[in-house]
Amino acid sequence: TDNSYQISVLSRLSYKRDNDWITENNEPGCSAIGERHVQGLVNLADNLEEDGGFWLVPGFHKYLPQWTIEHENLLSQYGLCSTFNLFKESVVPELYAVACYISSRAGSVILWDQRTMHGSRANSSLRPRYAQFFKMFPAEHPTMTEKRAENRRNGILARLRAVNINPETDLSFLGRKLFGLEQWSD
């Protein structure tokens, strides 16, 4: 399997800008080589429909390649935002019509194939929405070079320190592994 495109894109990430995290999150090229990558979120508070929150188009991952070809004009019309597109409902009403809102309780985990069209809806209530998004991929992935792993660790450490989190004292051993600060083989 040729994953040279993935390697060329992901090896350039410094993890100093938000766009680098978005690029990693969307894992360019994984669909072309048949990889499955999972995205998810954990709701930290109950999330009702009027609170905004997560929605997706069920089964869209099966149609993404064909849909992209059929809607190539949207890229030039709408523009690429880093490695993802933002579409107004008026542009793709057929997708909004079949999108499902997922209401969930605090502690709920929602997982989806990253190729599934998904997004967040506006909050029309007075309650805040608290959720943590995450991305899962194999720890021994060929694109995770030593340099990329080091850049990623440094980026995570900088973000943790910016909010006064000391990874040595405030994170568990598992937490440090999940953030990529410790090796899974340790």
TrEMBL record:
It comes from Rotaria magnacalcarata. InterPro entries: Phytyl_CoA_dOase-like. It comes from the Eukaryota. This is Phytanoyl-CoA dioxygenase.
